[in-house]
Amino acid sequence: MLNISEIIQTIKQLIEVRMQLIKDEVNEKISTIMARIFLLLLMMTVSVMVLLFVSFSLAFYLSEKMYSTYKGFLYVGLLYLLIFILIYFLKDSKGILGSFQNFLKNFVFRGRNKED
Length: 116
Fold this sequence. Notes:
elongated; transmembrane helix; Putative superfamily III holin-X
């Protein structure tokens, strides 16, 4: 009887240790994914700020060259309108969607496949 109770106790301990290892692994993967998502959002925010300042710079430059303030801003606005129309017509393109999805998968889940 003593051997059976020791075996049962050892199995319980092994299960507890395995469960703790699984919890630690899941917590590590979740924290890695959350950190990558935060980094991606931070990169997007900085990119938007850069785009904003570059847009203003281009608008003021064009305004100076054309001797008309509104024309510089109008041309930059039209440029963004053309980009928007282009993106709108290409939104269902499988190549663009696939490459964007692959980029996000590789960026967010990059470390996961290498560790497994």
